[in-house]
Specification:
Layout lengths: L3 H7 L5 E4 L8 H11 L5 E4 L9 E3 L5 H7 L7 H10 L5 E2 L9 E4 L21 E2 L3 E5 L6 E5 L1 E6 L2 E5 L5 H11 L4 E7 L3 H7 L9 H9 L4 E4 L6 E3 L4 E12 L5 E2 L5 E2 L5 E10 L5 E2 L7 H22 L3 E5 L8 E6 L6 H12 L5 E6 L7 H11 L6 E8 L11 E9 L14 H14 L1
Parallel strand pairs: 1-2, 3-18, 4-12, 20-21, 21-23
Antiparallel strand pairs: 2-3, 5-17, 6-9, 7-8, 7-11, 9-10, 10-17, 11-14, 12-13, 14-17, 15-16, 19-20, 22-23
Helix pairs in contact: 4-7, 4-8, 6-7, 8-9
């Protein structure tokens, strides 16, 4: 099971919302996904007939935590452990020589028209049609190690995209070294593959780690790769679309604005240019879109591996750690953690460790292990009844942060930590009910539906 279609076919119909009428890709899919989210629903959206384009468009695939866990072959609460095991047991990819589904149809040079791809315009302020779901595959110019990442791509012409690179990311570093040698950076853009490859691409791992090996560990089998037609890069043989090309050395053009994960449209950009050399695809491809901005799938995909990594590292130092949650309300900037406290001062130590492990975090709350950190009402209740502002919080000013935070100043932010754990001599006792009463109530409600 190595393809997107395999995963979609295995999903129950109850997790799919199929739109069979012709649908405009500008704004409508974004509006639909955000409205579903407002109704606390997270089906995979399948637009069978995108207006003006051929082939279905799929979105909202990563909007559900349990579904992300299933992508790693585990139950709803098993993703953090699956990620830890995958990082400890990488499965290297294999390069195949035979025919590959992603190269069923090949368009080279001027015949490769990116404008024929069903690319959406997501928000009103967006500068144009954007690919936000493309996995950019390139190689370290010195070691040859493959790197996978997500970078936004603005369609500017049949063979041209504007690209903004994460200025502290590996692909940006690769481009800097290529530019120093007067060379372009060869890049393949993969659109649509097994979701485990998307999870691996969204992770922050060491530069010497090939994310295809991480995906293989999640899938429990090697990812099958095939060589590109025009560049020295390998891509998943079972992908849906691949755009082959180069990020041009020393060439910069305006790009943006674009709706980012903060919920704001931003002009911040490295202003790079990607030149298309070829487009390959399946005979009947599926275009996978990821709704950008402040959407659940955008935030969950980009933080699920960060949560797992930080949880694992934090638990090494805080063995009684129970759970860690980056709530959607805080984009990537807030975190709630629960643990069993055995001594005063432990919560402060844990909070300092948490903010040190993840530079994005600027607001963190520690609660006791009886609090569900995935329920913000529970966390707010703990703050209301177990927290005093004059003794239970601390702040660290002017700390390195993510520059997309619109409130940051020169790439720095203050870090605020709240200790909402009970003091060791706490006298309050939480109200409770016997299990048989809870079971009876749930049974009555279930039968009344």
């Amino acid at each position: 099971m190595q393809s997107l279609a395999d995963f979609l076919n295995a999903l129950p119909d109850s997790e799919k919302l199929v739109i069979s009428t012709p649908t405009d890709l500008d704004f409508l899919p974004t509006a639909l996904v955000l409205e579903l989210e407002a109704q606390k629903r997270a089906p995979v959206v399948i637009i069978e007939k995108p207006d003006g384009f051929s082939g279905p468009v799929v979105s909202n695939l990563f909007a559900d935590r349990a579904r992300i866990a299933r992508m790693a072959g585990v139950g709803p609460t098993g993703f953090a452990q699956a990620w830890t095991e995958a990082m400890a047991g990488l499965v290297p990819a294999v390069v195949t020589s035979g025919p590959a589904p992603v190269q069923d149809v090949v368009a080279l040079g001027n015949e490769a028209d990116a404008g024929t791809l069903p690319i959406s315009r997501h928000f009103q302020a967006d500068a144009g049609r954007y690919i936000g779901s493309g996995i950019l595959v390139c190689k370290d110019p010195d070691t040859g190690v493959r790197n996978l990442s997500f970078q936004r791509m603005q369609l500017k012409g049949p063979q041209k995209f504007g690209v903004s690179l994460h200025s502290r990311g590996h692909i940006w570093d690769h481009l800097q070294r290529c530019e120093a040698r007067g060379k372009n950076l060869e890049v393949a853009v993969v659109i649509g593959s097994h979701p485990a490859i998307y999870i691996a691409a969204g992770a922050k791992v060491a530069m010497e780690v090939d994310e295809f090996a991480v995906a293989g560990a999640l899938m429990k089998q090697p990812v099958e790769l095939v060589k590109c037609k025009t560049i020295d890069v390998e891509v998943p043989a079972n992908a849906e679309y691949v755009i082959e090309g180069e990020i041009l050395a020393g060439v910069h053009e305006d790009e943006g604005p674009y709706g980012e994960y903060t919920g704001y449209s931003t002009y911040r950009s490295t202003r790079n240019v990607f030149q298309v050399k070829a487009i390959t695809r399946r005979a009947k491809p599926i275009f996978l879109d990821i709704i950008p901005g402040y959407s659940a799938e955008h935030l969950l995909l980009s933080r699920c591996t960060r949560e797992a990594h930080v949880f694992h590292r934090l638990k090494e130092m805080v063995p009684t750690l129970k759970a860690l949650n980056y709530p959607k309300s805080g984009t990537h900037f807030h975190a709630f953690m629960s643990f069993k406290k055995t001594a005063e001062g432990q919560a402060r130590q844990a909070l300092m460790l948490l903010m040190g492990l993840d530079s994005y975090i600027k607001f963190a709350v520690a609660v006791d292990d009886d609090i569900d950190v995935f329920d913000e009402t529970e966390v707010m209740w703990a703050l209301a009844t177990r927290f005093q502002a004059d003794t239970d919080m601390f702040m660290v000013p002017k700390v390195f942060c993510n520059r997309l935070d619109p409130s940051s100043v020169e790439g720095m932010s203050a870090k605020l930590a709240l200790d909402a754990t009970r003091p060791m001599n706490f006298e309050g006792e939480r109200t409770s009910l016997p299990q048989h009463a809870l079971d009876w109530a749930r049974d009555v409600i279930s039968k009344a539906r």
